[in-house]
Design brief:
Blueprint (H helix, E strand, L loop, with lengths): L1 E9 L2 E6 L2 E9 L2 H10 L4 E6 H6 L5 H8 L5 E5 L5 H10 L3 E4 L1 H5 L1 H11 L3 E8 L2 E4 L4 E6 H10 L4 E6 L11 H10 L3 E5 L5 H10 L3 E4 L1 H5 L4 H7 L1
Parallel strand pairs: 1-4, 1-12, 4-5, 5-6, 6-7, 7-10, 10-11, 11-12
Antiparallel strand pairs: 1-2, 2-3, 7-8, 8-9
Helix pairs in contact: 1-3, 8-9
């Protein structure tokens, strides 16, 4: 199982939101590149980066910060947040991202996501963020009527190779991840699933390993010390 330490960016700082609430934000560092270097020094090979300002407003406000993070040699970086046109995909790939995550655009413009998956293949991942089983968009502030599991099945049909599935209610809450959702996805889909949201302790890590998901994103648990990155990497 691939492990992706998370760096969420807001106003150029490393932050964590609780359950996607922009009013419940904790700042952990004013130097995101330093945090990336710290993860690398502990043995991380991957990094998950989200521009929260971009996810909310549709603008790549933290682009230069992501560029600084990408300079950390040896890390495979997947980046998302506000990426809603091909120019932004190209710019992120050009600066060194290994994979670009499309979220809102995937739901609101299915022709676009199909075109981008066809053109860029495995360099495109789709972020499916769910609240009460429905797909949420625009920085998790708007919830659609689209069933998240059905949406994942449709993404597989159009050729998506990686889905990052987040249960918003678990994200940053430190009360465990939604294992039932990942079991369902693993049974019904034959593509890479990356688990995100609420992974709080080694029990969650062990359970995800048993389910067989492709990857797991670790956020708040790393920043609070509830999980030690070196121990998780050794296990996985």
């Amino acid at each position: 199982m691939e492990i992706f330490p998370a760096i969420d960016l807001k106003n150029g700082e490393v932050v964590r939101l609780t359950q996607g609430d922009y009013n419940r934000v904790e700042v952990y560092s004013q130097n995101p590149a330093e945090i990336a270097a710290s993860f690398a020094s502990q043995g991380a090979k991957n990094l998950h980066v989200v521009d929260l300002d971009g996810a909310r407003d549709g603008e790549t406000i933290n682009f230069e910060t992501v560029r600084a993070i990408a300079r950390q040699a040896g890390l495979f970086i997947q980046v998302g947040g506000g990426i809603r046109d091909e120019d932004r995909i190209y710019r992120y790939l050009e600066l060194g991202a290994g994979r670009v995550i499309l979220g809102t655009a995937a739901l609101e413009n299915p022709d676009f996501i199909h075109e981008m998956i066809t053109k860029y293949g495995a360099e495109i991942a789709v972020g499916v963020d769910a609240r009460d089983g429905k797909v949420a968009v625009r920085g998790w502030r708007e919830v659609s009527s689209v069933d998240s599991m059905q949406f994942c099945r449709e993404l597989e049909k159009i050729g998506a190779s990686t889905i990052i599935y987040t249960d918003i209610s678990r994200d940053g809450a430190m009360r465990g991840t939604n294992l039932d959702a990942y079991r369902e996805l693993s049974v019904n889909l034959n593509i890479d699933i990356i688990a995100s949201g609420g992974i709080s302790d080694m029990n969650d890590v062990d359970a995800l390993l048993e389910i067989g998901v492709h990857g797991a994103i670790l956020g708040k648990a790393l920043y609070t010390g509830a999980l030690k990155l070196t121990e998780v990497l050794q296990k996985c």
